[in-house]
Amino acid sequence: MGETMVVVPRIVFYGASGYSYCIAQMATYTQPLCEPVAYIDDFRGGCGQRLNDIPIISFDEWKNNFLDLACFVTVADPKSKHRLADKILAAGGSFARLYERPEFSFPEVSIDAGTIVFTPIYLGPYTMLGKHVHVMPMCSIGHDVKIADYVTLCPSCTVSGYVVIEEEVLVGAGSTIVNGKAGKPLIVGAGSKISAGAVVTKSIPPKASVAGNPARPLRELARARRVTCRKQNL
After folding, report:
1. Is residue 64 domain-shared with residue 120, that is, in the same domain?
2. What would the 3-class secondary structure string for 55-85 be?
3. Suppose 187 and one of 25, 166, 194, 203 were both cysteines; which one would form an S-S bond, judging by CB atoms 3.0 to 4.6 Å apart?
4. Is the alpha carbon torsion for 114, 153, 33, 36 positive or negative?
5. Is the pLDDT of residue 82 over 90?
6. What is the rounded average pLDDT of the residues 22-43?
7. Mean pLDDT of all residues in the chain?
8. Which domain holds residue 144?
9. % pLDDT > 90, the chain
10. Do residue 36 and residue 130 come from a single domain?
11. How many domains does the chain have?
């Protein structure tokens, strides 16, 4: 019997930066998730430029020539990712679902449209990833974790069990979010930013920026440093 032909989805990436190229490279390496057809760039598009021999097009070129293809937003900043996704939807576009093929599915894990997960990685059972989530390599996500839309997890993050990460959160490289409890999850509030290497030991309010071990608001850290400096100078 002949081999089954695997159809790889053809996708237009929104973004043409180095980050976009990294996403494309990881998505097509070895067993490909997708085939990049073009990159949309609001500034360089339509000028004949190319990225890795793939054309960089304008938003209007995409609407006129590629509207039938699914898109993928290749921008790390959560707010920018949200804005560009809304722009595509308003123009009648759609988003890729990369994990409907059995060889790319994760057991007992839900992954929504526009989301990408790069190996090596661990995804625990009963975990839900919303729309337009980027999970970079070498992350570990425990059981019963809910990650909302437009979240970016940078490389080497650890998210323990019973954690809720709300919309538009950026989790810096090497960060650790410790576990919550059943019925009382640790919550990272919407729009928060967790600095690289931070250790989050308790819930974070919306729009907070935290750093350190244990993670604290940046203003609190700055005050603590000023106090320490004054004591050292006495």
Report:
1. no
2. EEECHHHHHHHCCCCEEEECCCCHHHHHHHH
3. 203
4. positive
5. yes
6. 88
7. 91
8. 109-218
9. 76
10. no
11. 2
Place of tokens 């019997």: 1
Q: Other C-beta atoms within 10 Å of 24: how many?
A: 23
CA terminus-to-terminus distance, the chain? 83
Closest CA to 87 of 115, 52, 62: 62
**Structure-token pair, residue 26:** 């990881």
pLDDT for position 219: 75
CATH of the domain at 179: 2.160.10.10
Residues 34, 128 within the same domain: no
- d(CA 135, CA 147) in angstroms, rounded, equals 10
Residues 6+ apart with CB under 8 A from 210: 192, 193, 194, 195, 198, 200, 204, 216, 217, 218
Residue 122 shares a structural domain with residue 60: no
- State the pLDDT at residue 1: 47
Q: How far is the C-alpha of 71 from the C-alpha of 227, rounded, in Å?
A: 50
The DSSP element (H or E) to which 110 belongs, if any, is strand 109-111
CATH number reported for the structural domain that contains residue 16 in this entry: 3.40.50.20
The residue behind tokens 């990712």 is: 81
For 129, the token pair is 């990833």
pLDDT at residue number 230 = 65
Residues 80, 27 within the same domain: yes
45 shares a domain with 120? no
What is the residue type of 16? A
Kindly compute the dihedral angle of the four CA atoms of residues 36, 23, 151, 179, in this order, to the nearest 10 degrees.
130
Which stretch of DSSP H or E encloses residue 26? helix 18-28
Q: What is the pTM of this model?
A: 0.90
* Same domain? 77 vs 132: no
> Does residue 25 lie in a domain region?
yes
